[in-house]
Amino acid sequence: TLFGLATSLGLGAQQATSGINHVFGTDGGIGMQLVVIAVVTFLATMSVIRGINGGVKVLSNINMLVALGLLI
Question: Is a pLDDT exceeding 90 seen at residue 47?
């Protein structure tokens, strides 16, 4: 539902912003969270627009490469 998606996106943005702040030593606030939300929303929208073969397949392949990289 819409409220579940909004909650997940908001909490995920907070976690991503905290990680970015920790790694890079920045003091990002609500502005950084809005940037993270905008980037995630843009990527999801582009994935939906491109369809299964163009969007979701590409994201799945990227996910597998990242998982392989973390494994090594």
Answer: no
